Amino acid sequence: MPATGLQLLTRALQEVGVLAGGEVPSGQEQSDAQVIAQRIVDSMGAERLAMFERLRTVGTLVSGPRDYSIGPPAPAPEFPITRPRWIDPATFIQDSTASDPIETPVEILTDERWAALRQKTFDGGIVTAMYYDRPGGISIYPTVNIGNTRLVLYTPLAVTGFSSLATIYTFPPGYDEAWHFELAYQLCGPFAVPPEIRQRVKEQRTEAWARVKRPNVAATVGELRMPGALHAERVTTSLTDFNRGWR
Q1: pLDDT tens, 171-230?
Q2: Tens digit of pLDDT for each residue in 133-159?
Q3: Whole-angstrom Cα distance, residue 142 to residue 129?
Q4: Contact 119/60 with Cβ under 8 angstroms?
Q5: CA-closest candidate to residue 144, choices 102, 93, 101
Q6: Which residues, other chains included, contact 82 with Cβ-Cβ below 8 Å and sequence gap of 6+?
């Protein structure tokens, strides 16, 4: 259900008993709650399973170069998007002029795999792998020697918001509840909410996030790559390990 930032904050404060039904937060309460909401938004930008949107960005490759820039602070990046925390997946289009361009998978190399490549400027016609160095940019392997090629990046689109309490937000199914209880829980400490209410909200928060993250686990856990440093005898992946992030 669409709601303004102020409405979301008001509902959360009512949930934890700071406000009664029908009351609205004072100017100071709005300011304090808004800071907490902005902190949650920033934190969720690092939470893979909490993101519900994915951005598809197509960049042009040219014959020769291995490295390509992505996002600011590069002055004219080949991929003009905010630098993502991760890329998953990536694909290669060998002929972008075709009536039906074909995208082939590109392996995203870990730091260890990239370091292990002895010849990093190998020249070829099809990109089979790439390395993403967040402080720097993207390196493809092999480099291309033909024209009309494209690299396609699929990146998570983090939630942004609460810079203005007048902005209207619309969430996919389940996320409205999850954000409501997340905000309510985070407000408990600063607003001195009684322990029994905090515990109730914590449990509801856990259940709400479990419902929205479950489909995301199913969609991504099969793509998990095991780090090369792991012992060869370890063949299983726990959800705890997955949530730590091995990308």
Answers
A1: 778 888 988 999 999 999 999 999 999 999 999 999 988 887 776 654 554 444 444 444
A2: 877 799 999 999 988 999 999 987 766
A3: 7
A4: no
A5: 93
A6: 71, 72
